[in-house]
From TrEMBL:
GO terms for molecular function: galactonate dehydratase activity; metal ion binding. The keyword Lipid biosynthesis does not apply. InterPro entries: DgoD-like, Enolase-like_C_sf, Enolase-like_N, Enolase_C-like, Galactonate_deHydtase, Mandel_Rmase/mucon_lact_enz_CS, Mandelate_racemase_C, Mandelate_racemase_N_dom. It comes from Apiospora kogelbergensis. Signal peptide: none annotated. Pfam families: MR_MLE_C (PF13378), MR_MLE_N (PF02746). Keywords: Lyase, Magnesium, Metal-binding. GO terms for biological process: amino acid catabolic process; D-galactonate catabolic process. Residues 126-228 form the Mandelate racemase/muconate lactonizing enzyme C-terminal domain. This is Mandelate racemase/muconate lactonizing enzyme C-terminal domain-containing protein.
Length: 381
């Protein structure tokens, strides 16, 4: 049995955190522990584990997952689970590379050969989306997602909601399916109105119509409309997901492989969703390692429906993008709304380690934006 010899992590632009695990035979695997806006906290967790886990058997992925989750008394939450994600993904990549098979072969084998995908348009302050939508069509996409609104007060002018409806109408007129992300920035008095206004225009889904701590409000909204409700990026384990399944208030779950404890937990969450007839559409506005990890679970999950891609997302403009840091970026080419399932070993991507090490030098941690209202009160970003 090969043992873990070294755990390294690399902060890289635009806002990602990569993990490399090397065993004592020289085989390496890569993971992604990106937690937008909290890079330093995750790095602190990885630093403590990097020493503790050297010498453990690299094949014992589940043991290391349980040790990471249960071994420190306090468990769960975005920081610990994101650090665990980086470790877990890297161990799966390492193991599958040793066996020279894609990870999905170790998860039971694929149930599909290609995956439907969508990309972002509009940015944080959505404005004219028509030209961006046309650019996505030219790239091969047939579905997009956009932020519904700018920041809103708890009770704001209904006119601000009409602008969202017009943007959705413009995009759908081009023949695209459109998901609308409320981003948790719309509070219940406005969310009720916006869901109702959008319903006649048949959005693909509405995402995070309310913040996930407001499960009662989400359940109320689910009872008011037939529009599919999607959420999950701020849920960090199967235990976080369970109350939403039991409440019956989510139609599409969007767990983030870099926030839920990696491939191991994403696979378990996918199976949990299947038992409740809930679709799987993993959240992933992050880097190529995270997306490649999502793809491995998408490939084996019967309830998978669509995968988010961070290609050209507004966070990456003027910086590194999804096709950076890899030597085979062509695997992310989109044709008629789909990407082909990677066939290479491990994650199916070849990390450009030289670029990772070079651009990690003096890389700054990304800071989450904040929005303020007219009275300088903090609003949800």
């Amino acid at each position: 049995m090969a043992r873990i010899a070294k755990i390294e992590y690399f902060r890289v632009p635009p806002r990602w955190l990569f993990v490399k695990i090397t065993d004592d035979t020289g085989v390496a695997g890569w993971g992604e522990a990106s937690l937008e806006g909290h890079t330093q906290a995750v790095e602190g967790c990885l630093e403590s584990w990097a020493t503790r886990y050297v010498g453990l058997e690299a094949d014992d992925i589940e043991h290391i997952w349980q040790l990471s989750y249960r071994g420190g008394f306090y468990r769960g939450g975005p920081v610990l689970m994101s650090a665990l994600s980086g470790i877990d993904i890297a161990l799966w990549d390492l193991k599958a590379r040793k066996l020279n098979v894609p990870i999905y072969q170790l998860l039971g084998g694929k149930v599909r050969d290609k995956l439907r995908v969508y990309a972002w348009i509009g940015g944080d302050r959505p404005s004219d989306v028509e030209e961006q939508a046309k650019a996505r069509i030219a790239q091969g996409f047939d579905a997009v997602k956009m932020n519904g609104t700018e920041d809103l007060g708890w009770l704001d002018s209904p006119r601000k909601l009409d602008e969202c409806v017009e943007r959705v109408k413009a995009v759908k007129a081009l023949g695209l399916d459109a998901g609308v992300d409320f981003h948790g920035r719309v509070h219940k008095p406005m969310a009720k109105q916006l869901v109702a206004k959008l319903a006649p225009h048949e959005p693909l889904f509405v995402e995070e119509p309310l913040l996930s701590e407001n499960i009662g409000g989400i359940k109320d909204l689910a009872g008011l409309s037939s529009v599919p409700i999607a959420l999950g990026e701020r849920l960090h384990s199967r235990w976080d997901v369970r109350p939403f399944m039991e409440a019956g208030c989510v139609d599409i779950l969007q767990p983030d492989v870099s926030h839920v404890g990696g491939l191991s937990e994403l696979r378990r969450i996918a199976s949990m969703c299947e038992t409740y007839d809930v679709a799987l559409a993993p959240h992933c506005p992050l880097g190529p390692i995270a997306l490649a990890a999502c793809v491995q679970v998408d490939a084996v999950s019967a309830n998978f429906v669509i995968q988010e891609m961070g290609l050209g997302i507004h966070y990456n403009l003027g910086s590194e993008d999804l096709k950076s840091y890899t030597k085979n970026p062509e695997i992310w080419d989109v044709e008629k709304g789909y990407i082909n399932l990677p066939v290479g070993p491990g994650l199916g991507i070849e990390v450009d380690e030289g670029q990772v090490r070079s651009l990690s030098q003096n890389a700054k941690a990304w800071v989450s934006p904040t929005f303020s209202g007219p009275g300088k009160e903090l609003r949800e970003w």
